[in-house]
Structures are given as structure tokens and as C-alpha cells.
Amino acid sequence: MYASELEIRVRYEELRREADRRRLVREATEAARAAASSGDDEPERQVSIRRWRVRRAGA
């Protein structure tokens, strides 16, 4: 194998690893945002449960 081929392969691996790291960071960030946004409806859910309990107690 020629030195230039070896250098090209090494550079390709470095770029691939960097792309993998960036992808993992992006996926982790998106997952964290999704987890944070899914908790946004938590107060609404608690209110609806309270309303149900009040209706149930009144019946």
C-alpha cells in the first residue's frame, strides 16, 4: 500500500469518527429535548385528574 493511500484511509477514519461523534451528540440532544417537551403536558394531566376526581365525588 502506498503512503498516500494509507494517509487517505487514516483521514477517512478520522472524519468518519468525527461524524459519528457529532451524530451521537445530535441524537442525545434531540432525545433530551423530546424528554423535556413530553413533560410539558404534566400540569394539564394533573388538572384533568383533579377534575375527574371532583366529578366522581359529586356523582
List keywords for this structure.
59 residues; mainly alpha; 2 helices; rod-shaped
Task: Name the beta content range.
Answer: under 5%
Uncertain ranges: none
Distance between the termini: 84 Å
Query: Which radius of gyration do the C-alpha atoms yield?
Result: 26 Å
Largest sheet: none
State the share of residues found in helices, binned by percent: over 70%
Structural category: mainly alpha
Tell me the number of strands. 0
Number of helical segments with 4 or more residues: 2
Shape: rod-shaped
Written as H for each helix and E for each strand, in order along the chain, the element string is HH
State mean pLDDT (0 to 100 scale). 78
Structure description:
The chain is an all-alpha fold and 59 residues long. 90% of the residues lie in helices and 0% in strands. It has helices at residues 3-38, 42-58. The termini are far apart. The model has no long low-confidence stretch (mean pLDDT 78).
Question: What's this, in brief?
Answer:
The protein has 59 residues and is mainly alpha-helical.
Question: How is this fold's topology laid out?
Answer:
Blueprint: H1 3-38, H2 42-58
